Amino acid sequence: MTGRLVDSSVIISLLKGTLSEEWRKKIRSERQAISSLTYYEVCRYYALAGKSRQLEDVKPVLTEFDVLPPTREICEAAATPHLAQKLASIDSLIYATAQLNKLELITRDNDFTGLPGTTVI
User: Fold this and answer.
1) For the chain, what is the domain count?
2) Tens of pLDDT along 10-31?
C-alpha cells in the first residue's frame, strides 16, 4: 500500500474535531484520496442535518483530497466483498476502490474490521 483512501466516517470526525490528534496529523500531512462516494456521503450528512451553511465550509476541505470515481472494474470487484462480508453497497464500492488503487482504507466503521488493507481507527 502506497497511500490512503479515507472513508467518510473519518472525514466527518475530522470536520467535527473528534478525530485523534495523531490521525488528524497523518491525514492532513500528505495528500490522501477519497472515493467520490465518500464525497457524496459527507455532503449528504450535512444536507440531512440541515447544515447547508456548514456544507459550504466543508467543500474546501474536501478539495484537499484526490477524488477517485467508481470505475467498471471497481464495480465488478465490489460485488465479491458485498456478498462475502455483507458490506453495504457503498462500503463495498469504497473498499474495492482502495484495493484496486493499492491504497490503505482508513475508516471508523467496524463493518470493515478484518478486511485486508483496512485500518479501523
Assistant:
1) 1
2) 999 998 899 999 999 998 888 8
DSSP string, the chain: --EEEE-HHHHHHHHHT-S-HHHHHHHHHS--EEEHHHHHHHHHHHHHTT-HHHHHHHHHHHTTSEEE---HHHHHHHHHHHHHS---HHHHHHHHHHHHTTEEEEES-GGGTT-TTEEE-
Range of the domain at 12: 3-120
CATH number at residue 53: 3.40.50.1010
User: Structure pTM?
Assistant: 0.88
Would you tell me how many other CB atoms lie within 10 Å of the CB of residue 17? 7
Place of cell 476541505: 61
